[in-house]
């Protein structure tokens, strides 16, 4: 099978990147001891938008910047790699604001069939959409603060990134 254009770009771009790479000696734990949970949206560049240099922080990305999806990674980040703060950042114009679980399941059924819909049981069929952005930020921060897996000593904040302006605003 021939490489796709995306794969070719990966190889070409990586050759250029690796030719000048000088930071192979960075420590495994993040230097600034924090983790960021943010959305996988391609319009967000967490390093540039949130001031993260290579080696500073763990950046955990998933659909909607979802705390429940990120919990496994956050436990590893804190318990095994020493982070002491969580910054959760959702964003305006998020796709998770545009559908309900039934809508997503219907698309899966239409595109992949009934058998695939059964596979949604891997995450209980909950795509974790949300109708209100700031309430979702607050809810995720409360979830993390209430989790037995996140120590009370961990600072947790919630933010909204505005894709239209590039600015962040504090929610909680």
Automatic annotation (TrEMBL):
<dbReference type="Pfam" id="PF00484">
    <property type="entry name" value="Pro_CA"/>
</dbReference>
<feature type="binding site">
    <location>
        <position position="94"/>
    </location>
    <ligand>
        <name>Zn(2+)</name>
    </ligand>
</feature>
<dbReference type="GO" id="GO:0004089">
    <property type="term" value="F:carbonate dehydratase activity"/>
</dbReference>
<keyword id="KW-0456">Lyase</keyword>
<comment type="function">
    <text>Reversible hydration of carbon dioxide.</text>
</comment>
<dbReference type="InterPro" id="IPR036874">
    <property type="entry name" value="Carbonic_anhydrase_sf"/>
</dbReference>
<feature type="binding site">
    <location>
        <position position="39"/>
    </location>
    <ligand>
        <name>Zn(2+)</name>
    </ligand>
</feature>
<feature type="binding site">
    <location>
        <position position="91"/>
    </location>
    <ligand>
        <name>Zn(2+)</name>
    </ligand>
</feature>
<dbReference type="InterPro" id="IPR001765">
    <property type="entry name" value="Carbonic_anhydrase"/>
</dbReference>
<keyword id="KW-0862">Zinc</keyword>
<protein>
    <recommendedName>
        <fullName>Carbonic anhydrase</fullName>
        <ecNumber>4.2.1.1</ecNumber>
    </recommendedName>
</protein>
<feature type="binding site">
    <location>
        <position position="41"/>
    </location>
    <ligand>
        <name>Zn(2+)</name>
    </ligand>
</feature>
<dbReference type="GO" id="GO:0008270">
    <property type="term" value="F:zinc ion binding"/>
</dbReference>
<comment type="similarity">
    <text>Belongs to the beta-class carbonic anhydrase family.</text>
</comment>
<keyword id="KW-0479">Metal-binding</keyword>
């Amino acid at each position: 099978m021939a490489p796709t254009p995306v794969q070719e770009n990966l190889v070409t771009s990586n050759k250029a990147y690796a030719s000048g790479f000088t930071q192979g000696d960075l420590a495994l734990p993040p230097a600034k001891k924090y983790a960021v949970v943010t959305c996988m949206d391609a319009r967000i560049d967490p390093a540039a938008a949130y001031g993260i240099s290579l080696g500073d922080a763990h950046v955990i990305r998933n659909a909607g910047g979802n705390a429940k999806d990120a919990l496994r990674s956050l436990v590893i980040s804190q318990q095994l790699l020493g982070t002491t703060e969580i910054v959760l950042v959702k964003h305006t114009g998020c796709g998770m604001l545009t559908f309900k679980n039934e809508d997503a399941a219907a698309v899966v059924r239409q595109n992949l069939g009934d058998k695939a819909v059964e596979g949604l049981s891997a995450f209980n069929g909950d795509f974790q959409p949300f109708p209100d952005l700031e309430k979702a930020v607050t809810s995720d921060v409360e979830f993390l603060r209430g989790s037995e897996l996140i120590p009370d000593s961990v600072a947790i904040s919630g933010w909204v990134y505005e894709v239209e302006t590039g600015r962040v605003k504090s929610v909680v």
